[in-house]
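A student in our group prepared the protein record below, which I am reviewing. This is what I was given:
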Amino acid sequence: MLTIYFALFCATAFSLVPLAIRFFIIMQIKIGNGEFFLIKWIQAHEQAVIYGFWVFFVIGLCIAMPAAIKDVFLKLKDSVPFEEKLRQSGNQHSDYM
């Protein structure tokens, strides 16, 4: 189930990049910065900028994934379910409720 949530998170993150770039360009033009070189360049090379962000996302994902697999996925496999932890703890924390 965690893998499905992670895939949905990645899909959302990757799909937000084009929206954010387009929103940035439109807002810069609306406030009067459309004549600046950088805004014109980003507008002319919008797909390249988006692909560049996606490449950085993939590189970061490739760097972080081994550590995530080692730290998160393997620990979840060996961990005790939350309900069982509650049963084991008994009434130790009843004075706080």
